[in-house]
Write a structure and sequence with these properties.
The complex is a heterodimer of chains A (279) and B (366). By secondary structure, chain A is an alpha/beta fold. Helix content of chain A is 37%, strand content 22%. Chain A is globular, with a radius of gyration of 22 Å. In chain B, α7 packs across α8 and α12 runs antiparallel to α13. Classes of the chains: A alpha/beta (279), B mainly alpha (366). The complex binds adenosine-5'-triphosphate and magnesium ion (MG).
Chain lengths: 279, 366
């Protein structure tokens, strides 16, 4: 039995005439401890897919099985890092994390929980900012808080929706390493949504492209057989890396072109002759 | 050529002086001071302009009425009467003064007389309390009600009554509108069930609210001789002003950012936690905007309602002065107008400060 299983998932938004089928025929299996990345164009339905897995959305048809049990609701076993951080702006960094920890470990004493908050805030190097509000933080710092909040709940599986999408390349690299570090410590299962192929290759065991929608579906998977811990600079010379990277990019380019031709609708202009109002 | 040189020298001298000045006063501070000086200057000028226009207007009205009186005396009672009337008006005798828009100085005089009056009444009260102290002690020990001062209320007492009424009404509005708003906001079906109710009662005028409250309170107070004007007026004020808070609260609760709701779901917060830790904090800014509107509406309708309810506040004061028609009545009415305006402004500032305190995204509110 696979750890996570998506069987023939379809997801439609809206009803009747103005309904759109965003996801079509999605099939995916993940084993425990695996790190899978899904790459896709913007608007292709990545967030929708993530919300189906974490239980915020229900598929229109098909089923999501987590450890063999259908997902009908959110669960503390699956931690989520949202695309837009989703920190509560009226709480400080510490309070944001504390709120999550308190829900995840309702029986622990306040002291133990506070220790845990401090530990995870420290882990993402935000100890000096623990009493600041999200508004006072930079985008990268907010993202770290979101990471700390998700991890502090100690989920079995961690689902990340473009967690580093809004960051600059340097910060991105640092946070990638931090996430990998935390993941490798006790080999949680991880699903990473990204729009950056290099990020996927650096972090994941498998990369699966999401063909852009409407009717988005998963493409063929690409295995990354590069030993961990991976080294970014050394990887650039790795023939395996080059090959996989080129293959994925070629595939994405192809479907990108396909998408372009599909969307090239010809607009017929109405025939109008300018009228002269002066005469 | 030479001239140019001199000019240049002057320029450089000027700029170096300027730089020295800039170094002495940090530029931000300097800009701030200049700006605030300019602003107060403009405000001051506009106040002067306002008073000037007012003075001119009241003068013109005064002349018009005076002319009319003289004319009337002439046609009705002949030459002599007209001359007598003119002399009387010019002498400033209060018996024949034109009764029109008072001038700024008259209003100022009225304000001073109202304050003086207040001091007299306060002294009266103190004397009364002293005189009755022994008697009242005896009465209390005998289990009877003490004798209280029942003389005229001073202008300050009147203002305080009004403020008390408005706050009581505001609190009532808050305690009714916020909880109901939250409940309505949480449930779309309740929202549509209540919608007609809100839409119909929101535009009802203060006068009608007063009548409604009067009908009910009068019956409830049957057989009770105590004064229920205060109760009636604060309830009417509250009911009349609560709608903004009700609508804003419901809207704030109903339109909480989907991201926050998702967080609540992923963390698996219970209903109670979800409402108090996520939904309420995120709708606080809107709730407070509503409360601010409620307070200003409450203050605005208060005058009309006090008048109707015969509650010893500014509304009744204004009305009584108008009915009274004494010489300084008009200027007292204008004093009351300014007091009403200034207190309304201060109340609004107070609410704005509270609103800024609770809002987590201060930059967006401004
Ligand atoms: N609640 C909704 N109702 C209707 N349509 C929706 C809803 N949420 C998303 N969509 C549509 O579904 C499609 C996919 O949206 P989704 O947010 O999943 O894309 P995405 O891949 O996450 O994009 P991005 O990379 O920009 O985050 C979009 O066309 C969007 O307009
Ligand atoms: Mg997305």
């Amino acid at each position: 039995m696979a750890y996570l299983e998506l069987n023939n998932i379809y997801k439609t938004y809206g009803e009747g005439e103005n309904s759109t089928e965003v996801l079509s025929n999605i099939n995916l299996t993940m084993e425990e401890g695996e790190f899978v990345a899904i790459v896709g164009f913007t608007g292709s339905g990545k967030t929708t897919l993530v919300n189906l897995i974490n239980g915020l959305l229900q598929p229109t048809s098909g089923e999501v099985l987590f450890k063999g049990v259908p997902v009908t609701d959110t669960s503390h076993e699956r931690g989520v890092i949202f695309q837009n951080y989703s920190l509560l702006p009226w709480l400080t960094v510490g309070q944001n994390v504390y709120m999550a920890v308190k829900e995840a470990f309702p029986k622990e004493s306040k002291k133990v929980l506070m220790e845990r908050v401090k530990e995870y805030v420290g882990m993402v190097n935000l100890s000096p900012a623990i009493n600041k509000r999200p508004k006072e933080l930079s985008g990268g710092m907010r993202q770290r808080v979101a990471v700390a909040r998700a991890l502090a709940m100690n989920p079995e599986m961690i689902i990340m929706d473009e967690p580093l999408g809004a960051l600059d390349a340097l910060t991105r690299g640092n946070l990638q390493d931090e996430i990998l570090n935390i993941w490798s410590q006790d080999k949680r299962t991880a699903l990473l949504i990204t729009n950056d192929v290099d990020e996927g290759i650096y972090m994941a065991d498998r990369i699966i492209p999401l063909k852009p929608g409407p009717n988005a579906t998963l493409g063929p998977e690409f295995k990354i057989d590069i030993e961990r811990p991976r080294d970014k600079t050394a990887m650039n010379d790795n023939p395996e890396y080059k090959k996989t990277r080129n293959a994925i990019i070629e595939y994405l380019m192809d479907i990108g072109d396909e998408r372009k031709t599909i969307s090239e609708v010809e607009y017929k202009l109405p025939e109008l002759t300018p009228k002269s109002f002066v005469a | 050529m030479e001239q140019e040189m001199v000019l240049k020298n002057e320029n450089s001298l000027f700029s170096s002086l300027k730089q020295m000045l800039l170094k002495l006063t940090p530029s931000i501070k300097k800009d701030g001071i200049i700006k605030s000086l300019k602003n107060t200057g403009i405000t001051f000028l506009s106040i002067l302009l306002f008073i000037g226009l007012w003075q001119m207007g009241s003068k013109a009205l005064y002349n018009k009425e005076a002319d009319y009186r003289i004319e009337k005396a002439l046609t009705e009672r002949g030459e002599e009467a007209a001359v007598a009337e003119r002399v009387c008006i010019e002498s400033g005798d209060s018996s024949c003064q034109p009764n029109t828009l008072p001038s700024p100085s008259q209003v100022w005089a009225s304000l001073k007389s109202l304050v003086a009056d207040h001091q007299v009444i306060r002294a009266d009260k103190a004397a009364f309390a002293e005189k009755m102290a022994v008697t009242n002690e005896k009465m209390i020990s005998q289990g009877k009600d003490p004798i209280v001062y029942t003389g005229r209320a001073s202008f300050v007492d009147i203002v305080l009554t009004s403020i008390k009424t408005v706050f009581a009404g505001f609190l009532l509005a808050m305690f009714i509108a916020v909880p109901i708003g939250i409940i309505i906001g949480l449930s779309p079906s309740l929202r549509s069930a209540f919608n007609w109710f809100i839409q119909i009662f929101k535009p009802v005028s203060p006068v009608v609210w007063y009548l409604l409250v009067f009908m009910i309170v009068k019956t409830l107070y049957i057989g009770d001789s105590s004064d229920n004007a205060f109760v009636i007026s604060f309830i009417s004020v509250g009911l009349c002003a609560m709608w903004a808070t009700l609508v804003n609260t419901a809207m704030g609760v109903a339109s909480v950012d989907k991201d926050y709701i998702n967080v609540a779901k992923v963390l698996k917060l219970g209903t109670f936690q979800k409402v108090f830790k996520v939904i309420l904090p995120s709708s606080l800014p809107l709730i407070f905007t509503g409360l601010r509107i409620t307070l200003s509406v409450a203050w605005m309708v208060l005058i009309a309602i006090e008048l109707l309810a015969q509650s010893q506040g500014l509304g009744l004061f204004v009305w009584e002065e108008f009915q009274n028609g004494a010489n300084d009545s008009n200027s007292k009415i204008i004093v009351a107008m300014f007091v009403i305006g200034i207190i309304g402004f201060l109340l609004d500032r107070l609410m704005l400060a509270v609103q800024n305190m609770v809002s987590f995204n201060k930059n967006e509110m401004a």
